[in-house]
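Priority: low. Protein: Peptidase C-terminal archaeal/bacterial domain-containing protein. Input follows.
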Amino acid sequence: MVPRIVLAAWLLALMFTSSASGQELVPGTGFSSALELTPGSYTFALAPGEIHFFKIPLEPGDILVAKVRMASNQDFDLYLLNPIREIVGQSVRATGLTDAVEYTAVEKGPHYIVVLGFGDSSGVYSLTVSVIRPKTVTQTVTAVVTERVTETVTTHVFNTNTVVSEKLVTVFDTERVEVEKAPWTAAGLAILAAALLYTGHAATEALKSRYKQHTEEDKPASSTSV
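Result:
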């Protein structure tokens, strides 16, 4: 005959594992069939050798707290895994003690809660799940934009060209030769004087002849009477 205490616990487990629509909540037997939970308290019955799988979606920064309570003569263990199924938390306390795990999510996605019995432990246990969401802080960020202006400066460079011109200069070198003057003799002076007198006389006669010729040409021709 089943003891009344065990029967009452079994009935209580059935009551807490039913949803609002009357459907029974069945823990998953693997990651693919893990039962999705929301924050709250649940009661399940673990048969010998069974492993229960649950999942709960988390955002980065969310703090998940999971607790498992059992009878004083039972020993259940609690594990927590991230979305890539790595163990990120565990509690394996002694018989009858409450197991608890707290974890701050780093990745977005489903996080898995696994409950199993140590040795041949089995029976009813309660699972409490709570999620603490980080407070949303509104921060105003003032952005300072530095504008870089590129300025092109044109510098005029004046080149000075030095032109060297060659000038051809012809220098005439005049050599002055001094001719020694010989003293005039009396005969020489007499000859020079005679030459000058003759030249003057000849010039005078030529002028007189020229004047006479012009005078005759200027006279009017005389008329002849018949």
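The radius of gyration is 73 Å. The chain has two helices and nine strands.
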